[in-house]
Amino acid sequence: MIEIINLTKKYGKFTALDSLNLTIEKGTVFGFVGQNGAGKSTTFSILATLLSPTSGTAYINGYNISKEPKQVRSQIGYMPDFFGVYDQLKTVEYLDFYGASYGLSQNERQKLIPQLLELVNLSHKQDSYVDVLSRGMKQRLCLARSLIHDPEVLILDEPASGLDPRARVEMREILKELKHMGKTILISSHILPELAEMCDTIGIIDQGRLVAEGSVSDIQQRLKGEKLIIVKLYGGVDKAIRFFEDQHLVSKLTKRDDGATLEFLFQGNAKEQVGLLKAALMQDIAIISFSEMETNLEDVFMEITKGVELS
Amino acid sequence: MRNLFLNPVMNKEFKLRFRSFKSFLGLAFYLLALTILIVGFIYLQTQNSPMGLFRPDQSREMFMLLAFIQLGLILFITPGLTAGVISGEREKQTLNILLTTNQSSTSIIMGKLVSSISFLLLMIIASMPIYSIVFLFGGISPGQVLLILIFYIFTILVFGSIGIFFSTIVRRTIIAMVSTYGVALFLIGGTAFLFTISMAVNSMGAMPANNPVAYFFAMLNPGFILFGFLEPNAFNELSNQIGFGIDVPLWAAYLVSYSIIFIIMIVVSIRKLRPNMKVKSEA
Ligand SMILES: Nc1ncnc2c1ncn2[C@@H]1O[C@H](COP(=O)(O)OP(=O)(O)O)[C@@H](O)[C@H]1O
Ligand SMILES: [Mg+2]
């Protein structure tokens, strides 16, 4: 299980990650989707204890990334978006080195490595030098490497990027198998359809903020004319909550921490929106402001699904 | 302790280095060059002597020459061997993965240090039998040779730790290299230069007194220390002119100051290898 709480990362004045909150239950495959530069790798690096957060924190299986980075490392298998391999090392030796780095005994390694190579379809390459493998094979080898200490959580940063369609299918098959093994998988991509099929839940990240979370169909639903409306009140909050909850076009009503601002999704058109405001005023609800929140979800969604059919 | 010095990083590096045929070719070439140097030296000396003899004082001279050549080699090669070990992994994008494993930072740093200088150590140790030719002709005792060997290993470790330090805190290998060579150059040439100046300044005074400044620079200079091992008598005379007024031999001061440098370099490298994950609380 992964819990991310108000995670923020600034590079100087630039905010790469802005108060990210996310909970990923055990056994879930979570797809983290966003354009290049959205903050996916930054998030993953922090979870992998490679980058310190500016503020906020995260827990992996209950271990705090800031206070217990060592325990966190043994819980996760991490695959970076860009990585290199040692030259002059054979596939088996490559895995053996990382196995040893996780403190596995020689016996354990000898038993485990053939199984892992089998899993990622690289058994036939066990004596090849790592640096001459194709990109797809290297990706798969790196995936096998991230599994060597049998971690419960996998953090995979764009494992399918740069692969040809065939290699991508192969990668997807392996990930499906890992899902069946019950791993919690956090996987990123800048193309939604690449993930849509295999993820239980997706989160869309844009400019360091999580702009939507849910199943793919949930999100598509939201795009069909749902608006986020913010109402600031001058007292009478409970009355206002009762009023808005009764409206049939309103859903997911929440009260903000300041105690005087309500937030809800509204499914009506412009005319119905005017009607809603009018009715609220007639009920003597003290509204200071009534505004429609700008969401650029639609733009983001267009961008990450550009040119590909969503099944 | 066993885990620290027989760790995965070291195993892998050893495997890679000693597997390559080039390494052994390099070693063989080095030993050959040393042999030619010795044989050539003896040949020239015996040609010039009327009796065709190679005297103990000549044998001693040759030993000194060899000792300084090897020291020069050590000081020149060690920064190059060590200054790229961490930054190089960073540049090849293999460091991130290594850092997400369970291996402790101490184990990674120590493994890198020992494995990067291992080949140089092998070269030095392998050349010792050649040195022993001088025993045949006298002028040098086996104890002195052993002492110098220990001095070499210690010096390699310290200069190696400086290389590792820069490799860890500087992102790029080129800059780490330049920085390490810069520090090495200062410890060799810079301290010698400052020593000379402080001696000159002191001799201008009315009466020659203790010269702690000169002592300070001398104790940092590996060349001085080696000279002290080779020519104890001449060296003692010089030592008597410098010092804090207390009788600490220069080699002991070297041992202490270089140990301090080593510890600082290694401790900082270990702490800086991985980021500090703690959130800095904003005031
Ligand atoms: N070391 C860094 N220094 C400054 N800016 C950075 C650094 N690393 C990443 N960024 C910036 O942070 C943003 C998020 O980057 P990243 O997390 O790599 O995005 P993604 O993986 O989603 O493509 C980008 O705008 C990127 O330029
Ligand atoms: Mg990225």
In short:
Chain A is an alpha/beta fold. Chain A has helices spanning 40-47, 69-75, 91-101, 106-119, 135-146, 165-180, 192-196, 216-223, 237-246, 270-282, 297-304; strands at 2-11, 14-24, 29-33, 55-60, 63-64, 76-79, 153-156, 184-189, 201-206, 209-214, 227-233, 250-255, 261-266, 287-292. In chain A, strands 6-7-8-3-9-10 form a six-stranded mixed sheet, sandwiched between helices. Chain A has a four-stranded antiparallel sheet with strand order 2-1-4-5, with helices on one face.
Query: Largest sheet of chain B, if any?
Result: none
Low-confidence stretches of chain B at least 5 residues in length (pLDDT < 50)? none
Strand order of the largest sheet of chain A: 6-7-8-3-9-10
Bin the strand percentage of chain B. Answer: under 5%
Termini distance of chain A? 28 Å
Q: What is the share of helical residues of chain B? A: over 70%
Structurally, the number of domains of chain B stands at 1
Strand content of chain A: 25-35%
Structural class of the secondary structure composition of chain A? alpha/beta
How many E-type strands of chain B?
Answer: 0
SSE string of chain B, helices as H and strands as E: HHHHHHHHHHHHHH
Mean pLDDT level of chain B? 86
Q: What average pLDDT do the residues of chain A reach?
A: 89
Radius of gyration based on Cα positions of chain B: 22 Å
Quickly count the helices of chain A.
11
Q: Which cofactors or ions or other ligands sit in this model?
A: adenosine-5'-diphosphate, magnesium ion
Model description:
The complex is a heterodimer of chains A (311) and B (283). Helices cover 36% and strands 27% of the residues of chain A. With 311 residues, chain A is α/β, with parallel strands linked by helices. The longest helix of chain A has 16 residues, at 165-180. Chain A has a 6-stranded mixed sheet with strand order 6-7-8-3-9-10, sandwiched between helices. A 4-stranded antiparallel sheet of chain A has the order 2-1-4-5, with helices on one face. A 4-stranded antiparallel sheet of chain A has the order 12-13-11-14, with helices on one face. Chain A has 2 domains: 2-85 and 149-221, P-loop containing nucleotide triphosphate hydrolases (Rossmann fold, 3-Layer(aba) Sandwich); 225-294, Alpha-Beta Plaits (2-Layer Sandwich), CATH 3.30.70.100. Chain B is mainly alpha-helical and 283 residues long. Chain B is built from 14 helices and no strands. In chain B, helix 9 (142-169) packs across helix 10 (173-203), helix 9 runs antiparallel to helix 12 (222-230) and helix 9 (142-169) packs parallel to helix 14. The two termini of chain B are 41 Å apart. The relative contact order of chain B is 0.11. The chains are: A alpha/beta (311), B mainly alpha (283).
